Amino acid sequence: MKHWIEAARLRTLPLSVSGIIVGSVYALANPTENILTPTEVFNWRLFAFAILTTLGLQILSNFANDYGDGMKGTDNEDRIGPKRAIQSGVISPAAMKRAIIITSLLTLLSAILLIYYAFTDTNLWYSLFYLVLGILAIASAIRYTVGNSAYGYRGYGDVFVFVFFGLVSTLGVNFLYSKQLDLILILPATAIGFLSVAVLNLNNMRDEVSDRKAGKNTLVVKMGSENAKKYHYFLVIGAMVLVVVFAVLSDYHFDQYLFLLVYIPLTKHLITVSKNQEPRALDPELKKVALSTFALSILLSLCMVSLISDIIVNLFLGGR
To answer: Does the reported pTM lie above 0.85?
Structure first.
């Protein structure tokens, strides 16, 4: 069990649900015109199955990455990061392959239940669209490093992460509640997508040398370490700017900018990356950015529903 938990890479899981949290709470805070109250738009079963589906995709992606890189020999003694399950021999390729199949089926089942609770027996075309989207997400999670045409080996991993853990996660889940697309939500969705890609970029910067030797042509391998740093600055700073723009356009009050606290660790992170000369030292930064993104989604969500003002009133005025 210990080895399977390690293979699931728990530190990546908070990051994967960040978009779900923001998209769901935005629906709660902004009920549509044809819905009378927030409680009528927000559905806890939708939220639960959205979280389960996203976690399933993330774990599936981690299992497939372990299997694909392990079978291709990319995970070897040159690799700087933690030893993977197949690389170290604690899980056999056959067992990992079975785990990929089981996780795929469970994720698909969760996605089907999510679609059912969102649309029931209405909106057939929406249901079919989301079903296709779910199947594509599962296939993409596997094809990232598995197979001869794995797109992660051609530098397209960033696109998958941005689309599915940024745009689809945030905008897609919000549409399940509201049945409409609110364009302003593209700003935080893009921000979460950028930060998710930043975690992948850190991973690829750390493993640049071993990836290059193994023929894994990630975006970092293609652009080089210095350009990868500039790309990283763009991702993190771009995300920070987009969330502020979202807050301004949403007419946030001063107490709804509490999410700016997360910019402190993100700024420290950028300073660390700018000074870094040793790829091994980047490994702890993955967890920092992942947790910062999760914290940003929580604080931003609280600000969306103006809970901060209520908390202050209750603490200092006794609720009067």
So the answer is: yes
